[in-house]
Amino acid sequence: MLILENIGVFVKHLIFYRFEVKISDMLLKTESQTIKAGKEFAATLHGGDIVLLYGELGAGKTTFVKGIAEFFGVKKKITSPTFALMNVYDVKPIKLVHVDTYRLKDEQELIDIGIEDYLGKPDAICVIEWPEKLSTIIKNKRCVKIHIEHTKNGRVIEFYNVKFPMSNVKSMTKSK
Ligand SMILES: Nc1ncnc2c1ncn2[C@@H]1O[C@H](COP(=O)(O)OP(=O)(O)OP(=O)(O)O)[C@@H](O)[C@H]1O
Ligand SMILES: [Mg+2]
To answer: How far away, in angstroms, is 93 Cα from ligand 2 center?
Structure first.
């Protein structure tokens, strides 16, 4: 059984992590630490960046986005755009675009509300919760991937740089 598990891990590394470089990880023990991490991470972002936020329900994805929004000076209260799908904050000179695909049925819904005006565009930074639901619209786009996991010691956050544009994000996710 152990041998099989090890083979599984090896294959996973061979297939998935060949494309990803883990930049760092941290343990976030409180909500305010998650916000602070988001704020510090935001300082590394540039127009055109796409951030994919993975993590189970309640992992802390929106809390992390609160920190990103704080860095960019967003005054409005940040909540998950679960029903609206996308919130755009015009924080000149860029727009911070917060997407939550949890209730998305079809990628076309996001296209219809104009996501392609922002994805990868130099004046926009897109942060996407539940990116597992997306495939074609982020295909061949360079993304930063972040995993947040709820553990008994707190939230563990991991940052990955994707070396190559992804052809199929779904196959590379570890949650859901
Ligand atoms: N490091 C942390 N320690 C303890 N609680 C945290 C931490 N980070 C976030 N939380 C809390 O966890 C709860 C869920 O967080 P949040 O809404 O950000 O999760 P989410 O991943 O966006 O969930 P969903 O998938 O439903 O959108 C919130 O009450 C938040 O305050
Ligand atoms: Mg959320």
So the answer is: 25
**β-pair type (50-54, 124-129):** parallel
Q: What is the tens place of the pLDDT at every residue in 11-62?
A: 655 555 557 788 899 999 999 999 999 999 999 999 999 999 999 999 999 9
In b/e form, how buried is each residue of 41-50, taking b as 16+ CB within 10 angstroms? bbeebeebbb
**Residue nearest to ligand 1 atom 31, measured at CA:** 31
Dist. CA 31 → ligand 1 center (Å): 7
Q: How far is the CA of 73 from the centre of ligand 1 (A)?
A: 21
Residues 35, 70 contacting (CB under 8 angstroms): yes
Measured on CA atoms in the order 144, 147, 148, 153, is the torsion positive or negative? Answer: negative
Task: Pick from 34, 103, 104 the residue to mutate for probing ligand 1's pocket: most ligand atoms within 8 Å of its CB.
Answer: 34
The domain made up of 22-172 is a member of CATH 3.40.50.300: yes
Determine if the pTM surpasses 0.90: no
